[in-house]
thioredoxin-dependent peroxiredoxin
Amino acid sequence: MPISAGQPAPDFTLPTDTGELLTLSSLRGQWVVLYAYPKDDTSGCTTEACEFRDLFPKFKKGKAIILGISPDPVKSHVKFKAKYELPFTLVADEEKVALQAYDIWKEKSMYGRKYMGVERTTFVIDPEGRIAKVFEKVKPAGHAEEVMAVIG
């Protein structure tokens, strides 16, 4: 069932690019941008990550935490983060626990082949831990600006 604005954000505890565990509910009191992307170091995902990187100072000023989440392992996140100098946290969801809780682990199709993958989606979570806005089927270019407009 799709997650929509007004609902509590499903909590999770998952490893990050530092190897430490992060629990989403521990970030209450701050805005959180949880953006889900299919795969580290692919063209669209790199565009999206670099735009969040470039706007990071504005997000920080708005007291927002950015979390990128994908099914890639921690090791992959470490390389991706270093390669593009990403200043925010990447969350590894290899078991697709959070991706399924947020209903964005979906059947996709490319060149007639069906497979399971991440539907590129961004959730803006307010300081009370509720979903403030959902961006579905995100186009990477220009997306960070759209998200920034919600947080102000």
